[in-house]
Amino acid sequence: MTEPNDLHEIKVMVVDDHPMWRDAVARDLSAAGFDVVATAGDGPEAVRRARAAVPRVLVLDLNLPGMPGVQVCKELVGADPALRVLVLSASGEHADVLEAVKSGATGYLLKSAGAQELIDAVRRTAAGDPVFTPGLAGLVLGEYRRLATVPAPAAADEPKAPQLTDRETEVLRLVAKGLSYKQIAERLVISHRTVQNHVQNTLGKLQLHNRVELVRYAIERGLDDADA
Q1: Angle at 88 between CA 25 and CA 133, to 5 degrees
Q2: Listing from the earlier edge strand, what are the strands of the sheet with 84-89?
Q3: Contact at 8 Å (CB) between 55 and 12?
Q4: Residue 37, CB half-sphere, CA atoms under 13 Å: how many?
Q5: What is the pLDDT of residue 3?
């Protein structure tokens, strides 16, 4: 996945059932330089418009009429794993956060966030970084670790695990530790785009769809506890 040169290259869609809030978010993002390609006020409309507009980032509320936001997320990310979903919700309930992440969201921001915080979150989400309101990231990482302790069902004739290169394994270990792509690039003295390429190659080899699944894979194998 290539990294956009500026915000004008990042296509964003805003989904919220409150027209004034939706318009205000879209206006702030447009003023910051993002290409806001569509908005929607309910779940079914969000799915239809997103499929037509093909945004890079979906800014999504969870409480939507017609179809809940988590279902919108599942349908759209399932059809296009390259889509990044940033949930923007009034709810900070742990159950809502975890359900959103399990549905494919790559970030979760509370509506109490300021305009600049939202703008930065959308930019980072487009780059592939997980973005969470402070205090929620630890919750999500804890859930990854809990899930990793649940035994996977035995599969007959399970195929041999794909071979990752040393650098791909190194990047995967840092992803599991919760580092952003920028932090990984600085740690390994490589470019942000190179980190993205390693992650995309690893996703392809492991037949995974997004960073959420990648982190769980790494934690299941104890890579988050390995020395970096």
Answers
A1: 120
A2: 35-40, 11-15, 57-60, 84-89, 107-110, 131-132
A3: yes
A4: 18
A5: 46
Both tokens of 23, joined, read 């318009």
Whose CA is closest to 106, among 181, 195, 165, 169? 181
- The answer to whether residue 172 scores a pLDDT higher than 50 is yes
Q: Which residues are CB-contacts of 79 (< 8 A; sequence separation ≥ 6)?
A: 51
Distance (Å, rounded) from C-alpha 158 to C-alpha 166? Answer: 23
The predicted model gives 43-48 an average pLDDT of 96
- Kindly tell me the burial class for residue 93, based on how many C-beta atoms sit within 10 Å of its own C-beta (0-12, 13-18, 19 or more): exposed
Domain 7-136: homologous superfamily in CATH:
Response regulator (3.40.50.2300)
Residue 155 has pLDDT above 70, yes or no: no
Q: Is the model's pLDDT at 144 over the cut of 70?
A: no
Report the alpha-carbon angle 68-59-138, nearest 5: 85
Whole-angstrom distance, CA of residue 44 vs CA of residue 110: 23
- Say how far apart CA 199 and CA 205 lie, in whole Å: 10
CATH number of this structure's domain 166-223, picked from the four choices 1.10.3090.10, 1.10.10.10, 3.40.47.40, 3.50.50.60: 1.10.10.10
Picking from 166, 171, 163, the residue whose alpha carbon sits closest to that of residue 198 is 171
- Cα–Cα distance measured from residue 47 to residue 77, given in angstroms and rounded to the nearest whole number: 10
Interval 82-109: pLDDT, tens: 899 999 998 888 888 888 888 889 889 9
- The domains of the chain are located at 7-136, 166-223
List, as one string, the DSSP characters of 182-195.
HHHHHHHT--HHHH
